[in-house]
Amino acid sequence: MANVSAISRNEWMLRGPLAEKGYDWWWHSLTAVSEKTGEKKPFYIEFFTCNPGYAEKEPVIVWNDKLARDSGKKPSYLMVNVGFWGEKHGQLHRFFSLRDVDIHADPPFSVTADDCYCDETHTRGKVKVTKKDAKAHPEWMCDAGEMRWDLKIDKKIAFNVGYGASRFFRKINAFEMFWHAEGMKTAYEGNIWLDGEKYVVTPETCNGYADKNWGGDFTSPWVWLSSNDLTSKKTGKKLENSVFEIGGGRPKIYFLALERKLLGAFYYEGKNYEFNFSKFWTGSTTKFDCEETDDEIRWHVVQTTLTAKMDTRISCKKSEMLNINYEAPNGTKRHNRLWNGGTGTGTIELYERRGGRWELVDEVYAEGIGCEYGEYDK
Length: 378
Hints:
Layout: E1 23-34, E2 40-50, H1 66-70, E3 77-84, E4 90-96, E5 102-104, E6 110-113, E7 116-119, E8 122-129, H2 131-136, E9 145-159, H3 167-171, E10 177-194, E11 197-201, E12 208-215, E13 222-227, E14 229-232, E15 243-249, E16 252-253, E17 256-257, E18 261-268, E19 271-275, E20 285-292, E21 296-304, E22 308-317, E23 322-323, E24 339-354, E25 357-374
Antiparallel strand pairs: 1-2, 1-11, 1-12, 2-3, 3-4, 5-6, 6-7, 7-8, 8-9, 9-10, 10-11, 10-12, 13-15, 13-25, 14-25, 15-18, 16-17, 18-19, 20-21, 21-22, 22-24, 23-24, 24-25
């Protein structure tokens, strides 16, 4: 069921209880090519909404204001969060009061805030933060710079996690953090301008990805890995119709935290392999380790079902990653070392059980991996 489109899961979820204790974001990441130098560079674009029920005339940010939190103040805003990875990396944030944002909540969704826009098939906008403003406003949690973009979006392959994010479980807000990747593989086309330099985005080379998360709080640990820039070690050829994804951490159902669990999928040249703990009848199990060394973040994930196994080993240079910043709906900021990158590399070994033995389907080399790992501050 992994590759099943479900744009209803992309609707805006901050209605009912989540209007006053919830976040909902739409995320896009991709690789672009410098028109000037030919350099490949990965970017992300995110529209992050928080607590519309507490909207005021101006955006409300409270994570670094203890007096405001103690008085019961809660954050509320749209944060347009854009960034870039590599030797030159950074994140730029632009905040809007949700009173000034036009959100079409029902599917297909759309978000409009001044000259920033996002829907299922198109996004455009501009975020500019001067060095003076970045220094004067630590609550913005961002760097200085300017980024503009105008991109077409064509979501090719979905990762549908199944009934865990179904309408029933969404309605009762069963999980603390929900996830849906409508565009586990996405073709983008258009342009990005970073500090005046133009980058060109093409469907063939963009290694594009689109998903969304929503809920009442974040997870710890927080793990994400995905790429469709894949090469078969068996044939030496690019895999043009493939993508893998792993994500999760420690799911929480109401107040019950489950053991460390991840969801995973490998769409391998048209065939689905899914590793989903909620589908207990598949015998899905996961073991994973995330390690921070002096200069790298490393992931080792082994996922199995009764019929398939995926052994994933990824690393990413810390010098090319961000500590990406989010404020939780309760106004705290507990993730302060949430490593987030777009230049990970590694291998995926994919097996099928045949005749009672594991047989290698392919060993795949992955590049341009979107990757994330972090745990709450102690």
